[in-house]
Structures are given as C-alpha cells and as structure tokens.
Amino acid sequence: MTEDSRIDRPRDTTQMDLRRGTAVRTVAVHETAAPAHQRDTTQIDLDRIPSPPPTPASQVRTVERHLDEILGAVPEVHPIELAVLDAQGLLCAEDVVSRRELPAFDQAALDGYAVRAADIATATLEAPVQLAVVGETVAGADAPSSIGPGLALKVTAGAMLPAGADVVVPGVWTDQGEVRVAVHAAPPAGSYVRRAGDDVAIGDAAVQVGTPIGPAQISLLAAVGRDRVLVRPRPRITVLCAGSELVDVGTEPAPGQVVDVNSYALAAAARDAGAEAHRGGILPRDRDRLSERLESALLRSDLVLVAGTFGEGVDLVPEVLNDLGPTTFTPIAMHPGPVQGFGRLGRDGVPVICVPGEPTSALVSFEVFVRPAIRLMLGKRQLFRRTVQAISATQLVSPLGYRQYLHGTVMRHPDGGYVVEPVGDGTEAQLARMARANCLIVVDEDVTEVAPGGLVTVMPLLLGG
Description:
By secondary structure, the protein is α/β, with parallel strands linked by helices. It has four domains: 3-49 and 386-460, MoeA, C-terminal, domain IV (Beta-clip); 57-79 and 234-378, Molybdenum Cofactor Biosythetic Enzyme, Chain A, CATH 3.40.980; 80-102 and 198-232, Molybdopterin biosynthesis moea protein, domain 2 (Alpha-Beta Complex); 107-194, Molybdopterin biosynthesis moea protein, domain 3 (Molybdopterin biosynthesis moeA protein, domain 3). Helix content is 17%, strand content 27%. This is Molybdopterin molybdenumtransferase. Keywords: Magnesium, Metal-binding, Molybdenum, Molybdenum cofactor biosynthesis, Transferase. It catalyses: adenylyl-molybdopterin + molybdate = Mo-molybdopterin + AMP + H(+). InterPro entries: MoaB/Mog-like_dom_sf, MoaB/Mog_dom, MoeA-like, MoeA_C_domain_IV, MoeA_C_domain_IV_sf, MoeA_linker/N, MoeA_linker/N_sf.
C-alpha cells in the first residue's frame, strides 16, 4: 500500500500498548461484517500454530519494555544544512525568519482591471460604469505610478497594482474593453488584491522548527530567498546479516543454503521509514574479519541493525558483539520473533538492534522496534503506525502470553468499518504470502482465540506512512 492508497484516516495511536480495542476472545458472527458464507471458517487446530519455546515468565520481557530500552538509547542526530530540495521529507531544525515581504508589492490576485472602488460603487449589470483604460500590465512589468478618478488599468494575476487603485474587477464582470471598459459589478475595496506583506511580513517565521518540509514549505523557503535550510538529517543505518547458510543474491544457493533477503528487505524498510540505509550484506565467519566489519559499521552509523540466528554456540556474532560492548539477547513476549537483542557498542555507544533471521520475523521486528527508533531520530512526533479496529473474517488463534503479529489483508466493508483476514493460516512463513499483505493483525497477549466477527487491532502497512 502507499499513502495514496490508504484505506482511511485512522485514529492516532501514540502508545505502543495495543491492548485498547484488541481482539475479544469470542464474538458472535456479525451478519453484515463480511461475506463469511463465501469464506472457509473451518476451525483451526491449535496444535498447528507454532508456539515459542517455553521460557520462565520472569525471563520474558514485554514488547513495551524492550521498545522503551531501545528508544531510550537512540541518539539525537545533530542538525545539518542541506539544499532545500534535499531537505524534502525532513523536519526543519530552525526558525526561518523572513527578510522579505511576501508579496513584495501590492499586486492583482487575478486577471481583470485595477480601479478605484469609489469609481464603480454604483455599477450593476443593468447600469454599468464606463471607465477609460489607460494601459495594460502583466506580472514582472512596472505599472504606471498611479491612476486617477475614472481610469482603469488592465492587469493580469501577479501584476503590480498602480497607486490609487484599491480593487481589481475580474475580467468576467466587464465587457473586457481595450480603450473603454464597462464594469458590471461593484466589488468592495480590497477585493482581489494582494497587499505587500499580507502573506509573510519581514521578521515572520516563514517555516518553524519541527515543520515537515514538503513542496509547500520548499516553495515558501525559495520565496523568502533560502536555498539551504537546517534540518534533522536522515539517520544512517547499516543493515547486516549473520548466518552460515546465507549466500548473496547473485549466487546460486547449494542444498541447505538460502539467499540473503533480509539485508535487502530491512534496508528497504529503513529507507521507507526515512533513514539513509546502507546494505552491509552478509557478515564473515572469521572472527577477526567479523570484528572489523562490525567496528566499521559502528564508525559510520547512527544505528546498526543485525539479522540472524543468535543462540548460544550457534555463531560468533553474539560473542564479538559483546567484545564491542554489552549486548543482551532477551526472550520477548511476541510472536513471531520471540528472541531479540540490543546493545550500545563502541566508544560512541552506537545502538545495535538484533532481530531474528527468519524473514517474516525480521520484518515484523523491524515494524515493532526499529521503525519507531528511526522516526524518533528523525524528530517525528508520531513514532508508531496508525491503527484501526477491524472485524476478523476468519477464526484467529494465538499463543497465550505472547503478542501475535499476523500478516493480513484489510479492506473496507460496504456497510462501513473494516474487515481483515490473515494471509495463510499462520503456520507458513513464505515471502510471497507476506508480499500480498497490506497490514499486520495484532492479537494481544491474553487472547488465544478470536471467533469470526471478533474485533482485532490492525496496523496498515502504508509505504512511507
């Protein structure tokens, strides 16, 4: 989905706690909620849903706690000055004070005739007022210094208004004469006139700190004479992947090997979130080279993202990370991706976020933990995806005690509201299924089953959202 194809103006969600309005355990089927008679609502065997390995409750960290640790550690990226076009999509980091008036002179707001309001006060369609046309001026040309009683100057939009004129009569309200003009209406003084400084006065803040810079702001910056502006820059993210089974996309995988898709997917997700992402690719298996790669990433990054399988004795990555700074791998009460890692490494304490290597888990973990961190570094007020409540078209099951994130498709229902259904039955982790999804379905920790017709929280995956 893109911003242009967004399904709604969803509610603002400023907290990561999605328990408000999450799915209920059982709800009767809503007769008009979805064409349920056309869907397969066969009960799903709970034993088929993969559950995370049992972990003592005292060792499991909530999603919120892990996210708070990450957000509390991400650095504030120092503002930089960029050319205005390069600043598009970023937040302004200064109050841009105008040294010019906008407009710089009194000007016509549309095509017509500049006249004195007193001269046309009695003009009507039945009894038009006749005025002598003393000339014509267009935008960019000097106008006569003034006009006197009974005179009119033909003008185009943006043209300088002559002294003495206090109103512009639209051309369609006249006979559009060249030597003499018949005026058929009497707009009051000030109509269709832009006075100097009406838009921006000298000393006004044309663009304020924290304003997102889009086409309108770029237009205003150019108008006040600024070709460069101080902004909150895009954070530099390096994406790395760990795993002895990984080969690059240009290599034909041998039996037991898989193509590294995470470095591509996560780099793309980071760019979509607003970061300047560098795809670092597959980490080497040699300890010294691995340490060099990680140290290099720390030197040129504001945040490092590593995807892989991080079990004790599985590979060298956790050991080398710990050599560079304290790194903790913690069970998280979420599925997929129940084990996440985080540390602040190197002399500058660069945050390093470790996510699971399975592609579905990696992208879900990115949405939950990494994307909010990027938006915080960008200075965004809205850190999290906006969410909506939707009616589940099918039965959903979820492991008790874990917040479940399911890829799904959400759509408008003709009778109002939204209907959502998962892509697949939750047992597969296929890239093609994930690519068809336009949302994440969020099932709370204390919900194990949602009946068809039950309400669930849905996070639309809007590109650039």
